[in-house]
């Protein structure tokens, strides 16, 4: 393959002629000066595949549906309807790969149970395995409501269809579109009344978790969440899991890409469950033993079908 390139000493050309061939020489035309550079690039021959060939075999999404924004709109509306039925509450973001044998699973189970009891709220997650399952199981143990937004194309076992091993189908929604799922997870923590107690709980996780964490952080930074009624955002730094990330964000302050103490103002870093529970107790002015809701207006948004 051959191509032309301008020499560093060549002045700006009034016109450029580019020719591709299997030869090793292409000339650059200029009204001022001509130079010839020779390159020998041995590039592999690429075999392009259609986009459908990259889909999982279990994938049920018809990509033609993506051409209509109405499909996404319908799914977002379904997310909002589910939130209206179950009520807003604590949203958990975390790894789907840390199973019951992992120490962070045990800690998340305990945290999910105690936050659900303390705030007397619905527990929301991606309704998947791992730490999402731990928070769900903890809330169920506390006898509180649980809701979720699954994604139809998620790595792991609970993936291919509208399936969950123990939750009733009316308590979660399997989304085809990530945008709809994110709308649901965000709306589930937006407080529209002072009586609503919500929280974002960021547990240890990978790429998907970090994607959700930084999106919500940006929404709080831009005052799209909590502009009128603040929402607590807890970063669970179990076993120093996020310490390197926190150091990077401190470096961002040095580079000037974030303001001094700006990141610290957006969330509360908690090293253990006790710190998280103490923060939420103080944030909402609760007694550590308070588990009930005394606000009659809260039942309007939280009534079950």
Automatic annotation (TrEMBL):
Q: Which residues form a coiled coil?
A: none
SUPFAM superfamilies, per the entry = MCP/YpsA-like (SSF102405)
Q: What is this protein called?
A: Cytokinin riboside 5'-monophosphate phosphoribohydrolase LOGL10
Q: What organism is this sequence from?
A: Nicotiana tabacum
Its gene?
LOC107809878
């Amino acid at each position: 393959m051959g191509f032309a390139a301008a020499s560093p000493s060549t002045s700006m050309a009034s016109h450029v002629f580019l020719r591709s061939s299997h030869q090793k020489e292409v000339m650059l035309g200029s009204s001022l000066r001509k130079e010839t550079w020779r390159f020998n690039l041995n590039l592999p021959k690429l075999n392009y595949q259609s986009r459908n060939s990259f889909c999982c075999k279990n994938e049920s999404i018809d990509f033609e549906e993506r051409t209509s924004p109405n499909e996404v709109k319908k799914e977002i509306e379904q997310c909002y309807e589910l939130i209206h039925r179950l009520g807003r509450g604590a949203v958990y973001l975390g790894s789907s790969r840390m199973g019951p044998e992992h120490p962070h699973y045990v800690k998340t189970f305990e945290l999910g149970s105690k936050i659900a009891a303390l705030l007397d709220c619905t527990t929301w997650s991606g309704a998947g395995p791992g730490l999402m399952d731990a928070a769900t199981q903890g809330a169920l143990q506390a006898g509180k409501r649980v809701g979720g937004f699954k994604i139809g194309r998620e790595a792991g076992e609970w993936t291919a269809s509208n399936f969950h091993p123990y939750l009733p189908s009316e308590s979660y929604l399997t989304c085809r579109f990530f945008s709809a799922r994110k709308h649901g997870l965000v709306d589930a923590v937006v407080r529209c009344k002072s009586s609503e107690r919500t929280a974002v709980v960021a547990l240890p996780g990978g790429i998907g978790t970090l994607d959700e964490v930084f999106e919500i952080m940006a929404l709080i930074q831009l005052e799209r969440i909590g502009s009128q009624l603040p929402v607590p955002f807890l970063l669970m730094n179990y076993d120093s899991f996020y310490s390197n990330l926190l150091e990077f964000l401190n470096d961002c302050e040095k580079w000037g890409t974030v303001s001094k103490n700006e990141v610290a103002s957006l969330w509360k870093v908690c090293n253990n469950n006790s710190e998280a529970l103490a923060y939420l107790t103080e944030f909402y002015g609760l007694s550590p033993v308070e588990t009930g809701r005394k606000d009659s207006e809260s039942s309007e948004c939280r009534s079950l079908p």
